[in-house]
Amino acid sequence: MNYKSLFLLAVLFFLNGGFGSAQNWTAQRITDVENQNLANTWIDFVKEFEVEELPIEAVASIACDSKYWMWINGKLVVFEGQLKRGPNPKDTYYDQVELAPFLQKGKNKIAILVWYFGKEGFSHKSSGQAGLVFQCKALDIISDQSWKSRLDRGFENTAAPHPNYRLPESNVRFNAQLGNFNWVNPNEELVGFNPAKVVGSAESAPWNQLVKRPVPQWKDYGLKRYPEISSLPFESKGDTLVCLLPYNAQVTPYFKISAEAGKLIDIRTDHYRGGGPENVRAEYITTNGVQEYESLGWMNGHEVRYYFPEGITVLDVKFRETGFQSGFTGSFSCSDPFFNRLWEKAVRTLYVTMRDTYMDCPDRERAQWWGDVVNESGEAFYALSPEAASLTRKGMLELVWWQKENGVLFSPVPAGNWDRELPGQMLASIGYFGFWNYYQNTGDQETIEQVYDGVKRYLDIWEIADKGILKVREGDWYWGDWGTNVDRQTLFNTWYYLALKGFRNMSELLGKFEEVTQTEQKMQQFKTAFNRVIWNGQEYRFPGYEEETDDRAQALAVVAGLVDPDKFARIYELLQSQKYASPYMEKYVIEALFQMGYAEYGLERLKERFSLMVNDPKSSTLYEGWGTGVDGFGGGSANHAWSGGGLTIMAQYVCGVFPVEPAWKTIQIKPQLGNLQFAQTANETIAGEVKVRVAQISGEFRLEAGIPGGSKGIICIPDSCQSVALNNKTIWKRKPRANSYAHFVKRENGYLYFEVQNGAWHFVGK
Fold first, then answer.
1. What is the DSSP letter of 159?
2. N or C of the chain: less Cβ packing under 10 Å?
3. CA nearest 637: which of 622, 620, 627, 624?
4. How far is CA 663 from CA 272, 439, 499, 503, 712, in A?
């Protein structure tokens, strides 16, 4: 089997949830006899056993609340296993891990360290009970009283300040005078261990049903040296050692030192107060002699700052980057270096906001806000390998599985201390740019079937007023966007239309043709009413809204399809003067400009709006607001998922690459270079690699396209070209020419459309 076949099988594996979902649980849920389920509890578990014949496969099913690290015979097998709770408000995820490569004949030892958060946040629902479930049928091992356990007293609580209430994680403090990691090694005497305590069956309350992890384990990049550290070893004078990371990343810091006992080392990053409040930090209390330590709670930033007290000899410092298991397969470059930097920073911003869920930011909240997810998931299809789609799928299912009994959707979920609805974000999530865009890129009908009823229930909450637009509905948090001059009700009406558009498509996909007919009629009536009530002859403005004209509202109406071309010139005029959108909504403003045909100004505005953060030499990521860090617009973080929408613009509009048939079976390439001389992009889609390079030089328009096997391409050439050649064969000269390469489809809106099959194609228009 070739690489491409293996790659696609892996993609389908994760899109469908990994291993088979059926699980006959015989394991028991165990904890330590001394466990009191206090926040920030760490528990050590050990199982020793004999293996006579090495199995070919030995898949273990493992669950805990909240995270675990696993060693087999002293070798690290899983670095931070388990997903934050939960798939729904009651249940718990579990992992499946292949153990066979780590086993040996004779005596074997499994060592598992469990970290129990014991508190809630915007990304985790605590069960209230720390523990472990382990089951491996091939080895005939289940978690039960035969396991050994102990509270790991090396882990302690720091003094205040503690991480802000949005984070379920605590600061991590390890006292090496009270503990070490020797217990994970083979043949190590198990000091302080007792038989584990059984507290219930695997799927008993409060963990309830165990749901198979739908995303891969994290990618572990291994321990690495900091790029600019060269003065090792050295004796500390009580200063802070600032270690630059190569880019903003999710890291666990490491050091090796020689010290006397009782000294306090503090570790944090430059993003410790990213977004304003305190986030996570680490502490270490030294023992005597040479010692090494890696703090297991991940943090992020551009710098790791170690405070070493005076007298400590620092022998080594390193960091371990971990992140979502997807490849950086996408690329983009063009004739303007600014947009190349924008792409690079957008990719880094995207990747550092992916882990258990998509996140808004990796420091202040780590929360799956769905306005951010819509932008993130769209970017991932152009920048990352197809495995990234599994995180979108997970988010879609969670959003619907957390739906309230009254039909209301809310995010972020999973959540323990949040349940408020942001109506605009919820409509965005289930709509054309959210759920439907996922299907368009993956062809995953099964997931659409699973979320369909939830989408319908949420849409049914929204009522139409006498005038044909939405009844005013504010939800729990009356929010449309950060900043000023937000015409919320116009935005809600526009997001609603996009939600109807997505629902109509889902209904057709699933053969629910009565819903298709009803939704189409509703959309037609709604569009008419929207333009009658909200368009005042000069702009879209909700009755009663008295502030400055909202650029977001004008733009979103365009991309939703609510605006007819006769209004484009006026909308264009407004978008040249009104600039209130946050980085989140600016993506839709630029998208509207490209859809209306104003590519040159679209690029100009994109550069103007994002210039501060793109040109910032100190940041590899994009800010939450238009400023920087806590001084930014909205008091935002220096890394925020919603700001990367320009990445999608570069690939989908500048290079023109878009799947017009689900799963990239038909790929449209309709470039809009604006004033760029050339642009090129490529990525590994679920159908295979798609490559495009476009150039306009000296009166020639050149387009090179690579269409993967099993797909076809719709190539769009500007109709200003009097002649078009394909692979040196003339296929157009004021009219179609007969050829065996391309089929002429149509001439529309300034383009000539040609259909080609898979392969490498070189168009030249003059």
1. P
2. N
3. 624
4. 41, 8, 21, 18, 12
Residue position matching structure tokens 């509207």: 592
Residue given tokens 């006899």 in the structure block: 33
In contact, 141 and 165? CB cutoff 8 Å: no
Return d(Cα 139, Cα 58) in angstroms, integer: 7
- What's CA 17's distance to the chain center, in Å? 17
pTM above 0.90, yes or no: yes
Q: Could you write out the three-class secondary structure of 719-736? A: CCCCEEEECCEEEEECCE
* Predicted pLDDT of residue 17: 44
Q: Which of 159, 155, 158 is nearest to 178 (CA)?
A: 155
Q: What is the DSSP letter of 273?
A: T
CB 451 within 8 A of CB 403: no
Alpha-carbon distances of 129 from 9, 40, 195, 203, 206, rounded to whole Å: 37, 12, 18, 13, 7
Both tokens assigned to 361: 């930011």
Query: Which uninterrupted H or E stretch holds 114?
Result: strand 106-116
Structure-token pair, residue 56: 């070919």
Longest CA–CA span in the chain (Å) reads: 86
Q: How much is the pLDDT for 635?
A: 56
Q: Which residues contact 626 (CB under 8 A, 6 or more apart)?
A: 582, 583, 609, 612, 613, 632, 633
Check residue 537 and give its pLDDT: 97
| Amino acid (1-letter code) at residue 57 | E
Count the Cβ atoms, other than its own, within 10 Å of residue 465: 11
- Profile the chain (766 residues) by mean pLDDT over runs of 10 residues: 39 42 87 98 98 97 98 98 97 98 98 98 98 98 98 98 98 98 95 97 98 98 92 94 97 98 98 93 98 98 97 97 98 98 98 98 96 98 98 98 98 96 98 98 98 98 97 96 96 98 98 98 98 98 97 98 98 98 97 98 98 94 79 66 97 98 98 98 97 94 97 97 96 93 95 97 97
Residue 198, both tokens: 């059984």
| Residue 21 CB neighbour total at 10 angstroms | 10
The pLDDT value recorded for residue 521 is 98
pLDDT of residue 22: 58
To which residue do tokens 């000294």 refer? 263
Give the residue among 336, 92, 293 at the shortest CA–CA distance from 175: 293
**Residue 312: strand, helix, or coil:** coil
Q: What is the pLDDT of residue 19?
A: 35
23-27, long-range: CB < 8 A, 24+ apart: 23/61, 23/94, 23/135, 23/210, 23/212, 25/61, 25/133, 25/135, 25/201, 25/202, 25/203, 25/210, 26/135, 26/142, 26/202, 27/61, 27/133, 27/134, 27/135, 27/142, 27/143, 27/144, 27/201, 27/202
H or E stretch at 252:
strand 240-259
Q: Which amino acid is at 762?
A: H
Could you give the dihedral angle defined by the CA atoms of residues 196, 197, 201 and 203, in that order, rounded to the nearest 10 degrees? Answer: -80
CA 655 to chain centre: 23
Q: Is the separation of the CB atoms in 465 and 471 below 8 Å?
A: yes
Strand stretches in 581-663, DSSP E? 657-661
Which amino acid would we find at residue 92? T
